[in-house]
Amino acid sequence: MKKVAVAIDGPSGAGKSTISKMVAKEFGFTYVDTGAIYRTVGVYAFRNGINPCDADSVSDALKNINIEIRHENGIQCLYLNGEDVTGAIREHIISKYASDVSAIPAVRAFLLDMQREFAMRGSVIMDGRDIGTVVLPDAQIKIFLTATDEDRARRRYEELMLKGQDVGFEKVLADMRERDRQDSSRAVAPLVPAPDAIKVDTTGNTLEESVKIIKDIISERLSAYADL
Length: 228
Ligand code: DC
Description:
Blueprint: E1 5-9, H1 16-27, E2 30-33, H2 35-47, H3 55-61, E3 67-72, E4 75-80, E5 83-84, H4 92-102, H5 105-121, E6 124-128, H6 131-135, E7 141-146, H7 149-162, H8 169-185, E8 198-201, H9 207-226
Parallel strand pairs: 1-6, 1-7, 2-6, 7-8
Antiparallel strand pairs: 3-4, 4-5
Helix pairs in contact: 1-9, 2-4, 4-8, 7-8
The structure holds 2'-deoxycytidine-5'-monophosphate.
């Protein structure tokens, strides 16, 4: 089969990671969660007392940061300077740090090749904010996933509760809106749908319904692609 790249972009909590992971498994593609990579830079800044909005300090710190992504038993694990930070990157506070550092051009440039390398190795489903616009502009399939703010915040809230992090629904909603505003309005690689992306609204869907919609889109595109 020809190598295929599927780009799935959208705001936080639209279901990108959960859906992409399940769909990648079905098609036998490698799943890459690019938000996790920005979160790893966020963890470094947080732990080292670096202001994540200070572009000079964060850019300067990049020389001390080594990030590795390993797929272990089907799970994407993130290593920061040799330490497994797969759990640490999911702390609520790190969401804000990740969003702040991701607005810094040097950070985006630092992480670009790492993301592209995955797509060079084989078929991928990559999720993020700028996959269809910047990282893989030639991806054969581009999907932009959205849902209402309340729906997305509810999912994020439930995920955090399951991990024992009770931040409160209103705070999750407010933080999420602020992060989306920041991700969509930054100067470099903002969160915007690629002109050729298929928009899918997952509001009110069960996970199974959303997975089916995405699987159908990919299957349809794959058969058209195979005929080329
Ligand atoms: O997908 P996530 O919530 O784990 O991402 C965390 C932050 O990383 C998000 O607020 C913006 C940034 N990000 C980005 O700028 N570009 C990507 N491709 C993925 C994430």
